[in-house]
Amino acid sequence: xxxxxxxxxxxxxxxxxxxxxxxxxxxxxxxxxxxxxxxxxxxxxxxxxxxxxxxxxxxxxxxxxxxxxxxxxxxxxxxxxxxxxxxxxxxxxxxxxxxxxxxxxxxxxxxxxxxxxxxxxxxxxxxxxxxxxxxxxxxxxxxxxxxxxxxxxxxxxxxxxxxxxxxxxxxxxxxxxxxxxxxxx
Length: 185
Description:
The protein has 185 residues and is of the alpha+beta class. It contains 5 helices and 10 strands, in the order βββαβαβαβαβββαβ. It has helices at 31-34, 50-67, 89-98, 112-116, 154-165; strands spanning 3-5, 19-22, 28-30, 39-44, 71-77, 105-107, 121-122, 124-128, 134-138, 177-180. The strands form 2 sheets. It has a 7-stranded mixed sheet. Strands 1-10-7 form a 3-stranded antiparallel sheet, covered by helices on one side.
């Protein structure tokens, strides 16, 4: 595990389009299919990363709650399943079921979408407004595995609440920290 900071996509950048396999429904879904009325949260996660596992339950609860408020939530895994078989699509299906995802869990087989988003780590979060302009990219909260900080989700939750309420989102945002994306050789 290499501790890696997110690259912090420029605010205002338009979400790169994609069409990927949803390991939950087994359908190919596009960003256009999934865009929310009030905004869209794209998060790069994977099954085995200790940083993702550390916050997956509160993250899933937050994601499932905001979906009822017009926010689309999309999880994507771009890890190389040949070298990291625990991140293979069939294992992603099980992971989504285990944690009660109400949102799609997409497989970025070619890793082109992770590169288009300039994703660097898991978890990596990108929040877009209803015009698909980036309004938040940063951490879930300041908690990391073993550091003793409580898992609150306050950074991402505040950005989501501000977006839903039509308020400006604080541009002072802190990068996410996690395992590096497992790029193909």
